[in-house]
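Deliverable D4.2, example record:
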Amino acid sequence: MKDGILENWKKKSAEKQKIYKKYLARADKNKVLSQLPELHAEAFRRIDCLQCANCCKNYSPRFKTPDIKRISKHLKMKESDFIERYLRLDEEGDYVVNSTPCPFLGKDNYCSIYSVRPSDCVRFPYTDEDVFFKRQQLTLKNSSFCPIVYFVLDKLAANTK
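Output generated by the structure prediction step:
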């Protein structure tokens, strides 16, 4: 991640949260959505998630019923045993991992259940879909720990000046 825009990205993201919030509130949704695929692809070309894994180290995806069924089957566990061993209900009533980092994250930052990971993990960091715009608070939060979200948001906000 030795990239000019990514140098000190966490600090820059923290300093620019108000700018990003203002940008998202005023931005043309259709224009933003049309730019996301290209910026998403560029971010993934420049940033290696395996060097970071902040998402897996600090946060949990929601485990929806299909995720629980698929993962517990993959692990050859009963769903109830999987839930008891790995999950808890959060304040919003969603199943999330009961510990951080994620119990499926290896020391090498690889996911041991990658092929059957939760749909939230598949979709994260949402930089190529309308969640980026629809859930602005989530986008702002994600930009504080995910360099890909920071990269996309910073590029978008810089293009409006």
